[in-house]
Amino acid sequence: MDIQWRKSSKSTDGAGNNCLEVAEHGGEILMRESDNPGVVIHTTPAKLRAFLGGVKEGEFDDLT
Fold first, then answer.
1. pTM for this one?
2. Any idea where the DUF397 domain is (predicted)?
3. At residue 19, does pLDDT exceed 80?
4. Which of 21, 24, 27, 51 maximizes the CB count within 10 A of its CB?
5. CA-to-CA distance for 5 and 41, rounded, in angstroms?
6. CB 23 within 8 A of CB 3
7. pLDDT tens, 26-42?
């Protein structure tokens, strides 16, 4: 399985492993944390779009 992981260009804190990486494989979206790459979350493009839409609309702003 050849997965091409990508991370944001904004993940430049110097630690090198303080970011979330994403990939597309077999119609799914995969996510993992750089400091724990063995744990991979699988989701669908539609579910990720819905989640990101909620983030952009502020639905999760009070989760601090």
1. 0.78
2. 4-56
3. yes
4. 21
5. 13
6. yes
7. 999 999 998 899 999 99
